[in-house]
Amino acid sequence: MGKKLAIFFCLLSFLNAEQVSWAKHLLKGEALPQNRFVAVYFSSDKPKQTFKEVVKNISIDYVRDRFHGIESGKFAAYWGGEFYFDKTSTKRLAFRIEHQKVRIIIDDKIIFKSEKNPREDLLYTFTKGKHKIEVELMNAWHTTRFNFALQDGFKEYSEEEVAREIRKKFKDFDVLEVSVFEAKQNKLTLELMKSKRPIVLLLSSVREVNFTIKNPYENKIIAILLYNKNSIVKGSYKLYYIKEGYYSYKDFMPKCECKNDVYIDCTTEAYILDENKHILELFDKRLYGFSKAYEASWLKVPMVVFGSNIERQVREAVKKNIILEKKCIRKRNINNM
Q1: Which residues contact 293 (CB under 8 A, 6 or more apart)?
Q2: What sections of 249-336 are H helices per DSSP?
Q3: CA dihedral defined by 211, 217, 219, 221, rounded to 10 degrees?
Q4: pLDDT single digits (tens) 246-276
Q5: Which helix (H) or strand (E) holds 82?
Q6: 215, burial (CB in 10 Å: exposed 0-12, middle 13-18, buried 19+)
Q7: Which of 62, 205, 211, 306 lies in disulfide reach of 67, CB 3.0 to 4.6 Å?
Q8: Are residues 167 and 300 in the same domain?
Q9: Are 150 and 37 in contact (CB under 8 A)?
Q10: Residue 176 DSSP SS3
């Protein structure tokens, strides 16, 4: 019976459009929360053994079996809630799929099915009143990462048009860059150091991040440029979503090594010099400082002030790497004789 039940609502529903949602089997008539989601987590081979909670946001991030002992490759989840809209509103349903099957159901109608639609965000218009929102997920990887959020629609800008607008309005400001691959549990707190001038903040990430900015010195933030359309910045700021990619999160100091006297291996390049040149062209200002990490939950901003001393160190490292590369090539040629 358990096996049949697992197949019925964990697998068949993804193939059969007539099977609307898993709520009937998981909630057994329980009412959905208002303006919150009830979350039900389980292993796809043990659908009767569930873990339930009520959450404000849909977010899951873990590896192996480090969440309720559920093996990541068999993780499945259902989120459902009723949300009230005081007026007709077009919202962006923001999410990212990684080795998963996902369905989104609104008012008992399947509006997104990952097998049929590879898009990872879409617009949906909610009429005034109450709407039921349900999200189902089946994971198939040793890590489980998934976020879903209702966001206000926004315009995407090019860096150039934002920089042009800022240059027209402000003459004296500092440009700070924050770059990460991802954040722990998708949450990253940035603590701003004291600044003599207003700040333009560039927030770059490969994976979506929920940014919280702590500003104990009450620095003036002119604008925030956000380089991931699924990321969020808490608070009220002049925010611009940028069309272009992202800045590098890797260590800014170039490092190279001659491997086995055969080939040169560079773990990082002197990209910070290119970034500074790019920012200078955009804003007519040098990059004042930056904070970079592969993964973080908290960062001081800036971690590094990009002054002439740091730039000199980077350029010296580049020269040393060029010399190292020539030596490595000579050794390889000798070995091949």
Answers
A1: 179, 180, 181, 249, 299
A2: 271-283, 308-335
A3: 10
A4: 899 988 888 888 887 777 777 667 789 999 9
A5: strand 75-85
A6: middle
A7: 62
A8: yes
A9: no
A10: strand
